[in-house]
Write a structure and sequence with these properties.
- This protein has 158 residues and is of the alpha+beta class.
- The protein has four helices and eight strands; from the N terminus they run αββαββαβαβββ.
- A six-stranded mixed β-sheet has the order 3-4-5-6-7-8. The protein has a two-stranded antiparallel ribbon with strand order 1-2.
- The chain is globular and about 40 Å long.
Length: 158
Amino acid sequence: MKWEEVCELKQLQDLPFKIELNKWGQIVMSPVKIKHSFYQGRIQRLLESLLNTGEVMPECAINTSDGVKVADVVWCSDERFTQIEDEIAASIAPEICVEVRSSSNTSEEMEFKRQLYLEAQAIEVWLCNEQGKMKFYNAKGELAKSLLVPDFPQEIKR
């Protein structure tokens, strides 16, 4: 199955979970709990308040070497946004890709997605765990804080 087909299928719209494709075109579904949505929304609002340029978006579809993955929140420079805004799935990852870990995610899956986004030319990948603790990464490894948004907090609080 192709991402375009997934986007057009009426049966797959308005589902209470995230859909992605693996490299074989198979649908992968992840259930989402309220806490996941809370962290996702808070991260988006924080990014919008800390950055004056570019676009902050939730649920951004990104073409990767393992199929289409959907980052929970992304920040994209104006230049990169112009490049991808009319695409069904981004051909190049936004500069910042954020994943919020759900209870259904394994550490290996989160690490795999981190690598996929970096391969797709993300500059930083951020991971938020189930307690709201943030970790920041670039191609060289873990960072003490984001280099692109140094004022972003280490923990998402209520």
